[in-house]
Each structure stands twice: as structure tokens, then as C-alpha cells.
């Protein structure tokens, strides 16, 4: 959910609650004002009727017209009444013209004439129907509420979007930012202090990340380059020592062990250098590569190297697979996938290689159970105890896949470790 929608969603409930409370209060105030004005009118009629009755006894009778009427009844001495007391209440009366009962407001009071007689006076006056008034007010408030909601949403949406435009621009810039890759400088002017501070913090953070990345990259490159020559010299000297006839069998075993260790360091060095070059995008040359043919060529070499394992390789489902990429990286991708399948296989195991128009699959048997997916493609994420594995083969595959937008996945099914690569359609 976007920030603007989240804010508007939480704005509607208090707005609806406040407007509802205001509507109820407004209705009660209107009702109170109407009753107050009606009561005043009734009191005025009462004063006029009593004055007229005191002047002329002919007014001591009932009166009825369309808007108001009054009733005068003589009160016996047995009734306990308070002369001058006024009571208001609501009632109804039947209107013959409309054939229905209409609401009226009634004033009840008692007065005495000059001859000492006591009379009860009931004065009625037509008033508004509360049900109709409630419906009218509710309908008016509903329309007003709907219009206000639309206006508030439109105004808030426009205001929110205009005020948060620097935030979305910053998010878009961060979405396209990649450490170690060229990017446009952040151009996000704003008058809002918080967004200016956020821009500064983000720029400083990305600058530090870029500096740290460049230092690490430079260190790896320098270390890889500087180690190549001394490592090659070590290998040559160990080979010369092994050819010395004066060496004992124990010394030859030590030399062979050292030779194996140094060769492992050389492979590690080459892998780190390759990863660094991939991260730096130093493979610009691309051309269409027939990956199925490249797989067949690399399989011939690897089957000879691992001949003693007697691994069965199934290539019956190799179909043409063409993709435009750097030839060296294509070779590294295929070689590391196949080398991983051979290196972590078992004696008399099986490797199944499949290709289609946009998919590559390499499956192999192994003595290992299902691998840890979280560490599978991490650098130095070794999940076997093989001494000749440096834990960078699948990391190289993942780096090449990321470079070209390939989707790589791992599954374990029926004792087979399956690596799949999906190539984008072009």
C-alpha cells in the first residue's frame, strides 16, 4: 500500500466520526431551537387568550383553525392545580383534509377570572414532523458528507502528491542505484526541510557505500594480480624440487601436498579475479552463443578428467539454445555448472543435462542431502568437505546470471540436485 493511500485510509475514519458527531449535535441544536421558538409562540398565544378571556367572557370557549387551536375547560374546586404553572409537551391531532395525524406542540396552564373561577387552557400549534426533519437532515448531510469526502480526497491527494514528489523521486533514484555502476547524480530540490535532510543522508550513505565497494574491488584486483606471479614461481620451484633425484619419498609427498595447496590458491585467485571483472562489467563484447554446443565440448573435457568416477552423462535432451553474451562468460557459466556436477557427484553417479529454447538444466546425483538454499550461491559458501573446492563456482554462476538477467534456481528431487537457468526472451 502506498503512503498516500495509507494516510487517506486513516483520515476517512476520524473524518466520518467527527462529521457524524457534528450531524447529531446539529440535529439536536436545530430541534432545540425549533422547540424554543414554538414554546415562545405558544406563550404569546396564551397571554393573548387569557387577556381576551378576562376582558370578555365570550372567549371562554374552544377555538380551532388550520394552524392553531385552544381549549378552555373550567376546573372544579376538587382538582389540585397550580394557577400560572406552564407545561409543554408533544402530541398529535387528526387533520381531516390530509386524513392523517399531524404533530402539534401543546401548552398547558391554569388561570382564574375576576369572579374567582379556575380554568384550564390547552393551546396547540402545528410543528415540524421530526421524522421528516430527520430524513431531510440525514439526506442533506449524506450529500454534503459525500461532496466533502470527494473534495477532501481530491485536495489531499493533490496536496500529498505535490508535497511528497521529492520522496518518490528519491525512491526512484534509489531503485536505479547500483553500487559500482555509473549513475546520475541526485537532483532533487525541495523546500521541505525533512526531505532535504533525507536527500543529504541518502547521498552520503551511497557515497560511502560506493567508496567502500571501490576499495574492496581495488583490493581484490590488486591482490589477484600481484599473487599470480609469486604463485606461478612457487609451482615451478615445487616441480623442480620434485624432479630432484635426491628427494626421499616422504619429501616427495610433502612437495605434492604443497603443490596441491598452491594450485588451489591459484584457482581461488583466478576465481576472485573473474568475479571482480564480472562485477566491474569488463566483458563488453557479446555475440550469439550456441550454449548446447558449448556444453557438449566442455563435457568431453570433464569426462576425461573424471574418468575414474565412471559417471554416466545423459545428453539425449540437448536442444538448440542460443543466447547473446560474452563468449568467455558463457564458457565460465557452463564450465562451473558442469564442474560442480562432476565434483560433487558420487562413484558411478549420473549427470543429466537438458536444454531447450530458453532453459538450461543440470542435474546430478550426490552423497549429500539437500543443500542450504540461503548459502548455496554465496561466496565461499562451501557445503562439502572437498579440498579441491573453493566455494566460488556457484557464486560465479550467480554473478554471470545476474549480469545478464538470467533466473537461476535449485531443487532437490529423487536424490538429484537440479540447477536450472531460465534465459529471457529476446
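-> sequence recovered:
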Amino acid at each position: 500500500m502506498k503512503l498516500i493511500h495509507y494516510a487517506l485510509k486513516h483520515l476517512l475514519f476520524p473524518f466520518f466520526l467527527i462529521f457524524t458527531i457534528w450531524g447529531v449535535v446539529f440535529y439536536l441544536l436545530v430541534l432545540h431551537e425549533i422547540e424554543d421558538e414554538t414554546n415562545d409562540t405558544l406563550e404569546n398565544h396564551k397571554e393573548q387568550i387569557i387577556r381576551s378571556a378576562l376582558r370578555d367572557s365570550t372567549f371562554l370557549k374552544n377555538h380551532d383553525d388550520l394552524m392553531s387551536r385552544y381549549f378552555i375547560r373550567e376546573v372544579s374546586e376538587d382538582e389540585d392545580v397550580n394557577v400560572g404553572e406552564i407545561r409543554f409537551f408533544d402530541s398529535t391531532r387528526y387533520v381531516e383534509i390530509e386524513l392523517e395525524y399531524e404533530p402539534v406542540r401543546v401548552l398547558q396552564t391554569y388561570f382564574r377570572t375576576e369572579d374567582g373561577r379556575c380554568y384550564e387552557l390547552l393551546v396547540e400549534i402545528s410543528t415540524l414532523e421530526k421524522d421528516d426533519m430527520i430524513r431531510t437532515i440525514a439526506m442533506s448531510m449524506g450529500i454534503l458528507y459525500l461532496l466533502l469526502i470527494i473534495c477532501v480526497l481530491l485536495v489531499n491527494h493533490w496536496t500529498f502528491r505535490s508535497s511528497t514528489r521529492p520522496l518518490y523521486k528519491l525512491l526512484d533514484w534509489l531503485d536505479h542505484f547500483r553500487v559500482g555502476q555509473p549513475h546520475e547524480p541526485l537532483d532533487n530540490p525541495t523546500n521541505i526541510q525533512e526531505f532535504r535532510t533525507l536527500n543529504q543522508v541518502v547521498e552520503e550513505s551511497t557515497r560511502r557505500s560506493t567508496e567502500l565497494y571501490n576499495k574492496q574491488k581495488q583490493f581484490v584486483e590488486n591482490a589477484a594480480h600481484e599473487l599470480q606471479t609469486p604463485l606461478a614461481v612457487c609451482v615451478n620451484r615445487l616441480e623442480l624440487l620434485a624432479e630432484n633425484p635426491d628427494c626421499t619419498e616422504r619429501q616427495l609427498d610433502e612437495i605434492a601436498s604443497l603443490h596441491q595447496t598452491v594450485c588451489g590458491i591459484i584457482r581461488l585467485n583466478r576465481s576472485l579475479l573473474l568475479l571482480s571483472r564480472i562485477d566491474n562489467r569488463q566483458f563488453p563484447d557479446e555475440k550469439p552463443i550456441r550454449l548446447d554446443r558449448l556444453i557438449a565440448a566442455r563435457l568431453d573435457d570433464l569426462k576425461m578428467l573424471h574418468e575414474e568416477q565412471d559417471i554416466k552423462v545423459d545428453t539425449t535432451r540437448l536442444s538448440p539454445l542460443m543466447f547473446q553474451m560474452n563468449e568467455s562468460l558463457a564458457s565460465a557459466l557452463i564450465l562451473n555448472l558442469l564442474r560442480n556436477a562432476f565434483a560433487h557427484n558420487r562413484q558411478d553417479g549420473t549427470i543429466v543435462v537438458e536444454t531447450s529454447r530458453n532453459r538450461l538444466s543440470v542435474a546430478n546425483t550426490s552423497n549429500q542431502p539437500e543443500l542450504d538454499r540461503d548459502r548455496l550461491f554465496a561466496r565461499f559458501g562451501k557445503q562439502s568437505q572437498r579440498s579441491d573446492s573453493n566455494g566460488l563456482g556457484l557464486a560465479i554462476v550467480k554473478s554471470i546470471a545476474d549480469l545478464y538477467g538470467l533466473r537461476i534456481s535449485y531443487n532437490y528431487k529423487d536424490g538429484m540436485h537440479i540447477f536450472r537457468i531460465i534465459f529471457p526472451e529476446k
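The longest strand covers residues 100-112.
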